[in-house]
Fold each of these.
Amino acid sequence: MTITAGRKLGALVGVALAGGFLPGITLGSGSDAYMSVLLAFIAVAVLTQLIYVGPSARIGGLPLLAFAAVGVVQDSLIWWLLSWAGPAAGAELRVDGFLTIVLAGLITRVAILGVSLLLGNAAEED
């Protein structure tokens, strides 16, 4: 599996975790919840692919933390955009509060990095 596919899978996992566990994120019910998760996943996947924040080679711990912090800011801004665009797009997606937006960005970035690392290590072993 490629690194790009790993980032997309990580985005899906992160959006599902953030939407499922954070009380400030409302996804709707029934098919509206699926549509809200799909809208959030598409926004996160597309924007993280267009604006890639990360190293192109192996780096040390401190620069990796800097890239991770910038990634959390990027994902938080995406969730902020979703809090505004969700109701405008007709989805039942609502994100309430600044802390919820930051936590959703953190969960999403950790999931993207985690899945990318797991799949990257599995691809290296093949």
Amino acid sequence: MENETYRLTFFLNATHMVVIDGKSSSIHPHTFEINCFIKSKKIIAFEIMEDNINQILNQLNNQYLNGLEAFQNIIPTLENLTRLLYRAMSANLKSVSCRLVKLEVSESPVRTFMIEAK
């Protein structure tokens, strides 16, 4: 039996500042590359999946992440951004009978954090 999965790629422009081990970075920009791996039991139009994901990304695009309500209690590290996106995208895609099975978020070509569904 084949393992069929959609992969959709998006880009998110945002700035942030992180604190790791007590050291603060400067405010700096990223163009995050976001790869979404999605399963559906039926064929679904790409636009439906894209629209659901863009509902989330549009709220973050061209924003200073530290200033957003979603990051008032957590530092907007790559890992925390990925966790936030995974939860929000999973909920949105579930509403159209899709399942986000893996999410990869890269802050550069050599730095990626990913979450896979169990």
